Amino acid sequence: MEHRYLGNSGLKISEITYGNWLTHGSQVENDVATECVHAALDAGITTFDTADTYANTIAEQVLGDALKGQRRESLEIFTKVYFPTGPKGPNDTGLSRKHIRESIDASLIRLGTDYVDLYQAHRYDYETPLEETMQAFAQVVNQGKALYIGVSEWSAEQLREGHALATQLGIQLISNQPQYSALWRVIEDEVVPASRELGISQIVWSPVAQGVLTGKYKPGAELPSGSRATDAAGGADMIGSWLRDEVLIGVQKLQPIADENELTMAQLAVAWVLQNDNVAAAIIGASRPAQVAENVKASGVRLSPETLAAIDDAIGDLAERDASKTASSSPKRRLA
After folding, report:
1. Active-site residue (options: 54, 119, 124, 217)
2. 170 class by beta-carbon count within 10 Å (0-12 exposed, 13-18 middle, 19+ buried)
3. 232 pLDDT band (50/70/90 cuts)?
4. Is residue 323 in some structural domain?
5. Which of 212, 290, 304, 306 could covalently link to 242 via disulfide, CB atoms 3.0 to 4.6 Å apart?
6. Domain presence at residue 336
7. What is the CATH number of the domain that holds 162?
8. CA gyration radius for the chain?
9. Number of domains comprising the chain
10. What is the distance between the terminal CA atoms of the chain, rounded to a whole angstrom?
């Protein structure tokens, strides 16, 4: 497992990071979740990403339980704050000082740790002054409850404003967590250049496009039983936009490219995002340990310029590149 520096900091994280969105506390039983975490540890993954909103706080608890007994100093544990939790009252969401202060304390209890390595704003909060949010994050860092601050799905301008305030407050905003894959490239034109300028890395989620880039969804065929596309609890909603025949036909063109590089299609997809030098890590999830063992093999893979060009030719205009999609991912009003 290779490690990369996170932003303009001295913190190194595993370039394959284990995340438990959509799985722990919902899709898989706790004992299987624990097996997946242990498989990640066995594979050399040291970085684990979660959020208080995943399974309405249960995912944090499951991850904390799974990591019990591990040497804390050898791990990098990330969590997030913004979306509704608990009974979802008017102050159980957003990036207000109140919600951040209460959320970090509750997350630390569930995770069974005194601090998180990275505390992330899960989205941009249009209803809270950015100054209030960054002051609250600074307090979290100054209290030793988080070492660094990150964000998720912030636009280039939001990153610039947040980074400037963080610098004034003496804290480090070092990461952004956007969706990124060969099919979803909206960060390339604006977010990545701004991030390079500011010393911010990307920790990307959904590098296999909700599973579509694994090639298991075939054009004109029935959806595989037990797949995310058949998950009525939320997975099907996320993947639905990719299940168009023209997309699935394009994805099938990646199979010979993967074969030529002696990779599975999932490994090719994860390796592809890691070719971007602004990406510090690709987040993988798993519903069984074997998936972890497969995907970690993307670590250290170097794809040739010819291979990257062949992937571009196969995907073509199917990839989403509209930079405005980043800003639109944050709700204009808090969700309750």
Report:
1. 54
2. exposed
3. low
4. yes
5. 212
6. no
7. 3.20.20.100
8. 19
9. 1
10. 40
Give helix 156-169 / helix 130-142 axis angle, nearest 10°: 50
Active site residue 180: no
CB–CB of 4/15 below 8 Å?
yes
Answer whether residue 333 is part of any domain. no
Tokens 């073509």: give the residue: 316
d(CA 55, CA 188): 30
Amino acid occupying residue 252: Q
Q: How many CB atoms lie within 10 A of CB 333?
A: 9
68 burial type by CB count under 10 A (0-12 exposed, 13-18 middle, 19+ buried): exposed
Residues of the domain holding 284: 3-328
**Residue 50 within any structural domain of the chain:** yes
Amino acid at 79: T
Share of the chain above pLDDT 70, in %: 91
Mean pLDDT check: name the lowest of 139-143, 293-297, 329-333.
Answer: 329-333
Q: Which residue has the tokens 């912030």?
A: 154
pTM of the full predicted structure?
0.93
Report which DSSP code applies to 77. E
For residue 293, which amino acid is it? A
